[in-house]
Design brief:
The chain has twelve helices and no strands. It is an all-alpha fold. It has one domain. Pfam families: DUF937.
Length: about 220
């Protein structure tokens, strides 16, 4: 399992082409948004899964419903465009950070927040479908956090075997309150670190924009 499948691999290529067509934007711009947004989505899900047993169960149930069927019907999905349910998935992923994500991506791309919202709504069920399929195919007993952490770590500079644990520590204070100081450490992987730092409330819009550039730069080449 590898996050590059969702960004620059077969699934990602179809998603980028579909996003560009549905929203009538340049394909290179669509690729940049996809490369920046997908790691944020998976990182947010991973942190949410660690908030409580109830949150983990909720994400687990959601992944059970998204069994990957959408990946075989991406063309039909793009023909329909994003739905209200797709927007709800985005809101569940990012919570109170949803507007921050939209506004930051809009500022970097020159696209409107509405168009960015459309991109996120298109990507959300694809990401969930991919993760749901990976869940079906893995026999790991480590829980949803390990699944999400390993997918996120698959396309990064991180070679750590701690995957979900790294993401849990760095995101524990930046996706929804509590202690505002994200844990720092030399062993934190590049992608996990960047994805977590985007949500750090101590970072201003300029810093968030630089983080998005770095995230996108890992894949949008």
């Amino acid at each position: 399992m590898n996050i590059t499948d969702l960004i620059s691999g077969g699934i990602g290529s179809k998603a980028i082409a579909g996003v560009a067509k549905v929203l009538n934007i340049d394909e290179s711009k669509a690729k940049w948004v996809v490369a920046a947004a997908v790691p944020l989505m998976i990182a947010a899900l991973n942190y949410n899964s660690k908030k409580s047993a109830e949150k983990e169960a909720s994400i687990n149930n959601a992944l059970e419903k998204h069994n990957g069927g959408i990946l075989d019907q991406i063309g039909d999905f793009f023909g329909q465009g994003p739905s209200d349910d797709d927007n709800k998935i985005v809101n569940h992923m990012f919570g109170r950070n949803t507007d921050v994500v939209k506004e930051s991506l809009a500022a970097k791309t020159g696209l409107s927040s509405d168009k960015i919202g459309g991109v996120l709504a298109i990507l959300a069920p694809i990401v969930m479908g991919y993760l749901g399929k990976q869940k079906q195919q893995t026999s790991s007993s480590g829980g949803i956090g390990d699944l999400l952490g390993s997918v996120l770590g698959g396309g990064a500079a991180s070679n750590s075997s701690e995957g979900g644990g790294i993401l849990g520590s760095i995101l524990s204070s930046v996706l929804g309150g509590g202690n505002q100081n994200a844990t720092q450490g030399g062993n934190m992987g590049g992608l996990a670190d960047l994805a977590g730092e985007f949500f750090n409330q101590n970072n201003d819009s300029g810093k968030k924009g630089s983080i998005l550039d770095s995230l996108a730069g890992m894949f949008a080449k």
